[in-house]
Amino acid sequence: MLSKNRIKYITSLSMKKVRDAESVFVAEGIKLVLDLMPSFRCKYLFYTSEYAETFSKYRAEENEKIGSTEMERISFQKSPQGVLAVFYKKEAALDVSVLNENLSLALDDVQDPGNMGTIIRIADWFGIEHIFCSPHCADVYGNKTVQATMGALARVNIHYVDLPEFLKTAQNHTPVYGTFMNGSDIYRSDIAPNGIIVMGNEGNGISKEVEECVTDRLLIPAFPGNAATSESLNVGVATAIVCAEFRRRIR
What we know:
The chain is of the alpha/beta class. It has 2 domains: 4-88, CATH 3.30.1330.30; 98-248, Alpha/beta knot. The protein has 11 helices and 10 strands. It has helices at 4-12, 16-22, 30-36, 52-55, 68-74, 98-101, 113-125, 143-149, 163-170, 208-211, 235-248, and strands spanning 24-28, 42-47, 62-65, 83-88, 103-107, 130-133, 157-160, 176-185, 195-199, 216-219. α4 links the parallel β2 and β3. α7 packs parallel to α8 and α7 packs parallel to α11.
């Protein structure tokens, strides 16, 4: 049976300052927890009786079958899925030379946890291993973001950096692409198989400071070009379109 202190500790992980201090995060659900197990060291693993056969064999500092009432008390979801794990964060080391040969993403103040999680899934789908985030981006280890990644967090490395300073350095190694309403049609532009693709904030797009670091301005054109249409695309949707076009060119 979970102690009051253990329940209090797990529920406190809803706060970023606690997650940062403890260097841990929470994941819930069978598939998500199984996907993350090989990549993250597990501190606590809790599951209800129907999942005991699957999860009792996994290594964690504390591995325990609990009741459904206890699961409801520690879960961050309205309908708990019967499995909850607390994982240690991992620090992703970065060798700047990877920028020479690979495609990466940079996020300029993407603040919605759902968008953040979706973009990490998109990166995983298109084989992008590194995402560089400005400090005001949504916390990748927040519960909503972790759930939205659907396990892609196991394969995509997230780096929080001073984005303008990082991109100024990156310009020496690789092209820096950004999407703008006055950019060149992405379907008719010359694009390299490597580079950093910058995606901007949901409401304000790419900031002025980051824009100054962009070497190639791209446009996702609306069709037909003269038709009335939406003002902009969701940042997750735009990321998927851009990444798909980059990967299409190297097939």
